[in-house]
Write a structure and sequence with these properties.
With 598 residues, the chain is an alpha/beta fold. It has an 8-stranded parallel barrel, surrounded by 5 helices. The two termini are 41 Å apart.
Length: 598
């Protein structure tokens, strides 16, 4: 490509970008905070509608910018490249249209938007850390104080769990933790949306298995433990189960006393009391024991019988559905507990039974189980299982269901969402909209904000389905009618919807569009999940966590090791922040160069 043709192509691209921005119908409805950013987004959309790889190669050959990093300042970069090429070619400079945003201004706009949503940037890193709250966050402020000290910047409350009283207790505990740690924290409320999930499973029985941990040679490393409590008492701890024992004898026992019983196999078993807490007794055993309701307990001291009690509230046990490739699973419209023979389970979204068609794919439990719809009669959807992990898969209650090829015509805001908004209006900094599929979904939430008198509350758009991704430019422009907006890339559901092989490509495109619009991004789903749940991350999880530096906020889910996980992620983000800003490599001095004597 010669210089004349290259200049003509670039000037034409610039002209089309400017015309597209000036003629776009949504341009006049943008909030003042986003007017310049909306112009830049439209310039970027116009430019990316063309095949540019031959233009990029020609620019590289001339030692000019390849246009590879122009998202945040599209017209300014085009102007600079055209001016440089005109100078090299020795022709008369063209009259460049005024760019809405230059490089430094683009960084300032994104930083301002991030601060308005996520609070002041931490001193040692650019990306913030968001943490999903467990129910225990309502019990006291200790956990929240630990999270703030570890590096949490945003508290996330998931309306799919717990209730309004619990959420408000969490917020109250956060304020106490803030006062203790002298740290401020933003809050986000995730609306549940019309989620497709599996229903309840039928109970297999009431039984508790106590099993000690043994080493390779069968020796007990850790005995099995359970708290015995009198009727009416609460559980002593959340990590050790509690069982209620009838009768008055429990209060008369002490450490060292034993309990004799016959378990479900008529095996003679013994428990030993090892700790006391008021009237509760912690017992342990080196034997495997199966306990059911009404099992008699005989309390003993030095071989003498103290008294007798019975178990009264052994919890019901539900077993998952075990599915293999070639099996059939029936999704039912009727809300009844599922069963395993044949495999049946309730699907929580009634509209699925009106629109799902034979031949369409279905995915369950974040894509762990895949199948094809064989038949839908309006009451039951028959699914033939076509994909599971080796050895099969276990399907439990409250697991996600995705129909990626099915078009659902339903609003993102449910009756529950509207009620939750009413209760929590003005009490949180941001509201995350689930199941966004169209610009109208965003407009509906904006209308509710106006009705409730909270127009300044931030809006987070959860991009978690194919329709949201395909309609993203229009969704962003509609959202830009509000003063404070952000995007969450919900990578779990999104991967199932678009296909796992496309996830990397799709999340890149979302990042590019949001950078062009100067909209902060939350990098979500399963970041360091192994560490949060089991205490140790995998190598893949660490690499994935490092990639979250591309976003303005990284979201962690709850887990027993969440405090340590926040601290670990904080360290990763601090180190990676010195190397990257978005996709731009930041060339700080490398330690390996110093070690080489340079």
């Amino acid at each position: 490509m010669d210089d004349n043709e290259l200049l003509h192509r670039l000037r034409r691209l610039r002209e089309q970008a400017v015309d597209f921005s000036e003629e776009h119908p949504d341009r006049g409805n943008i909030h003042p905070n986003h007017v310049l950013s909306a112009q830049n987004l439209l310039h970027y959309l116009a430019l990316r509608s063309h095949e540019l790889r031959d233009v990029q190669l020609a620019l590289i050959e001339r030692g000019l910018s390849s246009l590879g990093i122009l998202e945040a300042h599209t017209l300014a970069t085009l102007n600079s490249v055209i001016a440089a090429l005109e100078c090299l070619h020795g022709c008369t400079p063209s009259v460049a249209p005024i760019a809405p945003i230059h490089v430094a201004e683009s960084q300032q706009l994104l930083e301002q938007a991030s601060c308005s949503l996520f609070g002041k940037r931490p001193s040692q890193r650019e990306a913030r850390i968001m943490v999903t709250m467990p129910t225990e966050a309502a019990d006291g402020h200790k956990l929240l104080s630990d999270l703030l000290e570890a590096g949490m910047d945003v508290m996330r409350i998931n309306c799919a769990h717990d209730n309004a009283d619990t959420w408000q207790q969490m917020l109250g505990n956060l304020r106490l933790a803030e006062s203790q740690t002298h740290t401020l924290c933003k809050t986000q409320l995730d609306l549940a949306g019309p989620k497709l999930r599996t229903g309840a499973l039928g109970a297999a029985g009431r039984v508790l298995k106590l099993k000690p941990v043994r080493d390779l040679f069968g020796q007990v490393q850790t005995p099995a433990r359970v708290w015995l409590i009198p009727p009416g008492d609460d559980a002593v701890t959340h990590d050790i189960p509690s069982l209620t024992v009838s009768g008055d004898v429990l209060a008369e026992t002490r450490i060292g006393d034993s309990i004799l019983l016959n378990d479900t196999r008529e095996a003679n078993r013994e428990l030993t009391i090892v700790a006391e807490h008021q009237h509760a007794r912690l017992v342990e055993t080196h034997q495997t024991i199966y306990l059911v309701e009404d099992t008699p307990f005989f309390f003993m001291r030095n071989g003498e019988k103290l008294g007798k009690g019975r178990l009264t509230d052994v919890h019901e046990v539900t077993l998952p559905l075990v599915l293999q490739c070639g099996d059939y699973l029936t999704l039912t419209r009727e809300n009844k507990p599922g069963s395993s023979s044949p495999a049946r389970i309730h699907c929580t979204l009634e509209q699925a039974f009106d629109v799902v068609q034979a031949g369409q794919p279905v995915w369950l439990d974040d894509g762990k189980i895949g199948g094809i719809v064989e038949h839908n009669d309006g009451a039951e959807i028959l699914v033939r299982i076509t994909q599971t992990p080796p050895g099969g898969a276990k399907l439990r209650a409250e697991k996600g269901i995705n129909f990626p090829d099915t078009v659902f015509d339903l609003p993102a805001l449910t009756a529950k969402d509207l009620a939750d908004l009413e209760t929590m209006a003005g009490k949180v900094d941001m509201v995350a909209l689930s199941f966004v599929r169209s610009p109208q979904d965003v407009a509906d939430l904006q209308q509710q904000f106006q009705r409730l008198g909270i127009p300044e509350t931030g809006i987070i758009l959860k991009i978690e389905n194919r329709a949201a991704f395909e309609n993203l430019p229009a969704i962003l422009l509609t959202a830009m009618r509000s003063p404070h907006i952000g995007v969450m890339i919900a990578r779990g559901d999104l991967a199932v919807e678009v296909g796992f092989e496309r996830l990397s490509e799709v999340q890149e495109e979302i990042l590019w569009l949001c950078e062009a619009a100067h909209i902060p991004v939350i990098w979500a789903t399963q970041i360091l999940e192994g560490m949060a749940k089991k205490g140790a991350p995998s190598r893949a999880e660490v690499s994935d966590a490092a990639m979250s530096i591309r976003a303005e906020c990284a979201m962690l889910n709850k887990g027993p090791n969440i405090v340590e996980t926040v601290r670990f992620l904080d360290g990763i983000l601090q180190r990676m922040g010195n190397h990257y800003h978005k996709r731009r490599l930041m060339m700080r001095p490398l330690s390996v160069c110093r070690n080489a004597g340079l």
